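Module 6 notes. Inverse folding takes a fixed backbone as the condition and produces residue identities as the prediction. Think of it as a translation problem where the source language is geometry and the target language is the twenty amino acids. Below is one complete input and output pair. Work through it position by position during the lab.
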């Protein structure tokens, strides 16, 4: 039920702009400002989505090229973590 209600809550800035426009008897200018804001939000969201799709493709290419290096780094991190746990255990045992 909450998912249906959240889309109905207006943006606080939009509410302020329209309230100010009503107070100044300039409702058309208020609607124009709100429309411009909506177009800006749409353009921003679309551009980020397109950039994310493009970046994902490039990132997947990078991951494919660096797979062997990432595996060696991962194995090194596992060994280093195991050594750190053993060292910590030995320090606790000695104390």
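Target side of the pair, the amino acids:
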């Amino acid at each position: 039920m909450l998912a249906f209600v959240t889309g109905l809550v207006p943006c606080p800035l939009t509410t302020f702009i329209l309230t100010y426009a009503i107070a100044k008897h300039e409702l058309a200018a208020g609607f124009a400002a709100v429309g411009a804001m909506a177009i800006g939000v749409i353009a921003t969201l679309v551009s980020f989505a397109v950039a994310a799709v493009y970046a994902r493709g490039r990132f997947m290419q990078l991951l494919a090229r660096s797979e062997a290096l990432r595996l060696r780094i991962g194995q090194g991190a596992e060994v280093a973590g195991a050594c750190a746990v053993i060292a910590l255990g030995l320090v606790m045992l000695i104390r």
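Reference fact for the lab report: The mean pLDDT is 88.
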